[in-house]
Here is the input.
Amino acid sequence: MFELPPLPYEKTALAPFLSEETLTFHHDKHFNAYVTTLNSLIKDTPYAELSLEEIIRKAAAEDNKPIFNNAGQVFNHDFYFKCLGPAHKEGEGDACPLDGCALKKMVGETFGGREKFWESLVKAATGNFGSGWTWLVQENGKLEILNYSNADSPVRDRPSATPLLCIDVWEHAYYIDYRNDRKKYVEQMLQHVNWVQVASRVS
Ligand code: MN3
Here is the structure.
């Protein structure tokens, strides 16, 4: 059985990027609903013995959409909330926290620098049609940005890739604070990514 992971920061810590109201609805209502629904769906089934990643891949293979969707959303939301943190300090976005780490080197090699990297993330996330997730993954020393719909993720089709960052582009992630302006939400999110956490996932 899965439990709702607590937010790794106060609900007021991300304002004005994300309000306390958004985090209350997104974490306590939406995320919690995926956890409780998943638990009720897997109870007393072979799925109950598996890890979340195993559940996602088994449900995909068996085309069990309710379990796939809820397990995917539990994985995605846990990952998403752990990607966020308080705003970067003045000037921090360019240098720290990527300085001297493997992620910064790959950003340079793959995108030609931080600015183009962020532009690529914004472009992918704003162009991801409908509800879904934009992922940054690493495989064989290269970074890739991938768009997925609904509850899908690289866990399903790229098990050998390492997920580094995800952007929730479902409207429930931003509508209270940004209405329909997904681009602004994504731009603000990049200022509130815990890049130290993201960089620590590089293998
Ligand atoms: Mn969400």
